[in-house]
Each structure stands twice: as structure tokens, then as C-alpha cells.
Recover the amino acids of this structure.
């Protein structure tokens, strides 16, 4: 069972401007909000009176640490307004297994924050989900670009409300390294390669690549492919309606291979990249002993830069948008967490009230003010974000409108797009090691994809 794709919406191009109001209707405020506590089994303190006083909404999700604490603030707001208690269940990364066990044991949570389109499709296919109410759907249609609703829809039923997003089309760089090399942020992929060469010639490798984590390589490929091949082919490839042996895939691999083949451009060369995990890749650019000038990845790099390495965004750490390839549009690849309602959850009305709250700019503002968050809600006032770089990132995501595309590997079956040592992750690691034969790599990708989608 696959999601329904709104092709006409996807062709609509950039959708609208960012609206500068965070006001919600009285009805939205009356019904709004979700809840979660800092650990399994803990509950928030609700208002003494409220429409859902005496009810508990259990919310399951993968978040821990700071992310869970900040989401807790959203849930606390829901509890304060509605009187409902909230209980947060941390699932770890294996959401499907945990939720399946809870359903079988008769202890299903009301709401789950689903981190991948493929998992949402799986939940719907299993018959676990309640379609979202017409009120929630109406608010989502008003507050989000069509593409976000599309990714939450399976076989014509709207199940998943995207509350938290990631912007995975950013290249982070050291302003000091750029200044020493006498270069500026590039505005095309070809210019980025020229800039990389100049930085490397100055004595510092241009890129730090986290090749040990295969998911980062899928993100590299997706940005190149979306810009070079275009959104329609991206959609077809994501659903395996286009084979990975298509010429467009070979072309994207060829483009990416031009970078991977230049050991001088990579910190510690390709072999070193394959030993570098994601946090270390960021450290190699922004740590105390810089080993590269740039690192590609999403907005979440910013948290590492500031929290782990003490850099100041906009001063000694900056980013530029992943640049357009071969005259295409600059890509905006995203990811995100969708809230869904389980049909076996006990308090369905309170759960749907939480969904309505999550669709509001008020709920998004709570986490935006706390930090470490991007919202796809176009009604959220950008002043809610705490720094200029995050505001720029959020504005880029929202202004991309229906041209945004969800992470392709997250849409695929896990055996192909989400398992260490298998499928796309492993094949692209092999390609980083030896990028000399893009056509052979495309054939391997098609073989793995065909098996996974068939299964």
C-alpha cells in the first residue's frame, strides 16, 4: 500500500510566501494540543478543568534527551489547555516492533510520532491507523503545503500530520577556511566543485564525508538526483516506478562520483571517509583542529556545531543551500516526523484534539522557541525561531512549498533504504570506495530495490 501522489500539486512550483502570523482560530485553541513526559510512564500535570480532564493521551516516539524535553513543552501546553494528562513512551529506533507489541498486548498508545514515510505506509497497510478528522484535515490544508499532506496520505486516506521537519539540503562551512582560501559560498554545483578545488589547494581538504553512516550517502545522492533529474523522476524513482538502471540515475552517480574520485577533496580520502561517522564528520570541520572546510548534511548539524563544538552560527559556522546541478533547480530534500492516531488507542477524541493542536502554528511556536526544531507550518511566525540561521533554514523549507521532496530512502522499504550494511547504504559505500563504474552501481541498486519492493 503506497501513498497517494498529488502530481499536479508537485508541479505547482514554489508555493506562496511565509505568512507572519501565528494566531489560531478560537476553535483551534479550544481543541488543541499533545502531551508527553520526560520518561516512560511519567505524566504531565493537566489543568484542573478542561474538556478532556480525567483522560490520558499516550504519545509514542523515538525522541530522547533534548528533543524529548522540547516536545514535552508542546505536550505540557496541550495538557494545560485541555485538562488531559499525557504520557510519553520512548520507543527507540524500532518503532514498528514496539508499537506492534503494544497493539497485540492491548496497550496501544493513542498517538505515534512516525519518523519515516515507509513506516507510516506500513502502519496503514496493517490497519492500525484512524484517518484524521475533517477538522484536522482542514487545518492541515490551510497551514501546510500540499506536499506534506500528500506524504501523510495512503490510498486516499489522510493519516499523518507532519509536525517536525528536517531541511537536508544544506552545506555547512567554516568561514575561516573560506576566507583563507579567498572563496565565497558557491551558487551552483560546478562552482562548488571549483571552490572545493581552491580550498584543497590552500592546504585543507574541502569536504568531510560521513561514509561510515550510509544514510548520509543516500542524502548526497538524493540532492544531486532531485536537482539534476527533476521532481517527477524523483517521485517515480522513490516509488520504484522507474528502474535504478535509468540513465538519470547513472548521470547522478557520475556527478557524485566526480567528487568521490578526488581523494584530495576529501578529508583522509575515500578510505578515511568510510571510517568517519556523522558526528565526526562535523567535528572535522568545526572541532578544535579543523581537517576540512565543508560538510554536507541537514539543519541538525547546527545543534552539533553550537552544543558540542561551541561555535556561533553566522560567525564561525555558516551554511549555503545545496546548489543546483547542471542548470536544474536547487534541491530541497526533507525528512520529518508525522503524528498518527492508532485506532486501538482508548481516548480517540482527546487524541484527535492533540492532532488539531499539532496542526496549529501555536504548537509549532512552542518548540521553535525552545530550539532544535523546524516546522513545515507556513503560518508559523518566523520570529519564533531563536537565531537568524534557523529562521533562514525554516523560510527556505516553507518557501519551497510543493517542490519539497521527502528523503527518498525513508520512503523505501527498510531492506533497501534503511538498513546498515545492506541495500542502498552498502552499495553507495562501495561506490564511495570505488566510483569508477556508475552503470554497475546502478545495476546493483536496481537489483536490491527490486527485491526489497517485491518483498
Amino acid at each position: 500500500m503506497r501513498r497517494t501522489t498529488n502530481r499536479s500539486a508537485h508541479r505547482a512550483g514554489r508555493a506562496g510566501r511565509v505568512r507572519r502570523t501565528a494566531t489560531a482560530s478560537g476553535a483551534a485553541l479550544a481543541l488543541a494540543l499533545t502531551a508527553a513526559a520526560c520518561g516512560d510512564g511519567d505524566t504531565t500535570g493537566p489543568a484542573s478543568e478542561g474538556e478532556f480532564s480525567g483522560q490520558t493521551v499516550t504519545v509514542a516516539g523515538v525522541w530522547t534527551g533534548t528533543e524529548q524535553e522540547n516536545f514535552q513543552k508542546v505536550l505540557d501546553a496541550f495538557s494545560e489547555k485541555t485538562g488531559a494528562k499525557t504520557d510519553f513512551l520512548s520507543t527507540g529506533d524500532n518503532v514498528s516492533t514496539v508499537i506492534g507489541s503494544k497493539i497485540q498486548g492491548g496497550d496501544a498508545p493513542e498517538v505515534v510520532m512516525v519518523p519515516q514515510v515507509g513506516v507510516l505506509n506500513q502502519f496503514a497497510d496493517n490497519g492500525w491507523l484512524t484517518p484524521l478528522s475533517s477538522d484536522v484535515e482542514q487545518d492541515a490544508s490551510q497551514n501546510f503545503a500540499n506536499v506534506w499532506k500528500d506524504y501523510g496520505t495512503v490510498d486516499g486516506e489522510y493519516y499523518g500530520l507532519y509536525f517536525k521537519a528536517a531541511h537536508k539540503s544544506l552545506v555547512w562551512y567554516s568561514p575561516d577556511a573560506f576566507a583563507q582560501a579567498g572563496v565565497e559560498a558557491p551558487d551552483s554545483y560546478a562552482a562548488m566543485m571549483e571552490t572545493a578545488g581552491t580550498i584543497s589547494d590552500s592546504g585543507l581538504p574541502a569536504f568531510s564525508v560521513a561514509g561510515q553512516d550510509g544514510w548520509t550517502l543516500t542524502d548526497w545522492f538524493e540532492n544531486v538526483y532531485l536537482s539534476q533529474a527533476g521532481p517527477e523522476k524523483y517521485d517515480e524513482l522513490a516509488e520504484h516506478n522507474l528502474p535504478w538502471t535509468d540513465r538519470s540515475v547513472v548521470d547522478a552517480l557520475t556527478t557524485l562520483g566526480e567528487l568521490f574520485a578526488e581523494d584530495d577533496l576529501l578529508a583522509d580520502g575515500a578510505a578515511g571517509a568510510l571510517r568517519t561517522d556523522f558526528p565526526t564528520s562535523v567535528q572535522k570541520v568545526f572541532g578544535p583542529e579543523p581537517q576540512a572546510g565543508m560538510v554536507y548534511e541537514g539543519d541538525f548539524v547546527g545543534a552539533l556545531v553550537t552544543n558540542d563544538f561551541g561555535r556561533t552560527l553566522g560567525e564561525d559556522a555558516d551554511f549555503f543551500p545545496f546548489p543546483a546541478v547542471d542548470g536544474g533547480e536547487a534541491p530541497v530534500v526533507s525528512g520529518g516526523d508525522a503524528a498518527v492516531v492508532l485506532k486501538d488507542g482508548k481516548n480517540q477524541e482527546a487524541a484527535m484534539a492533540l492532532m488539531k493542536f499539532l496542526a496549529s502554528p501555536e504548537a509549532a511556536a512552542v518548540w521553535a522557541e525552545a530550539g532544535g526544531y523546524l516546522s513545515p507550518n507556513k503560518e508559523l511566525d518566523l520570529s519564533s525561531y531563536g537565531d537568524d540561521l534557523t529562521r533562514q533554514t525554516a523560510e527556505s523549507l516553507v518557501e519551497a512549498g510543493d517542490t519539497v521532496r521527502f528523503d527518498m530512502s525513508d520512503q523505501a522499504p527498510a531492506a533497501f533504504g534503511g538498513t546498515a550494511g545492506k541495500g542502498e547504504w552498502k552499495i553507495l559505500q562501495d561506490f564511495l570506495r570505488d566510483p569508477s563504474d556508475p552503470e554497475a552501481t546502478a545495476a546493483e541498486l536496481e537489483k536490491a530495490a527490486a527485491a526489497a519492493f517485491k518483498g
Notes: The chain has a mean pLDDT of 90.
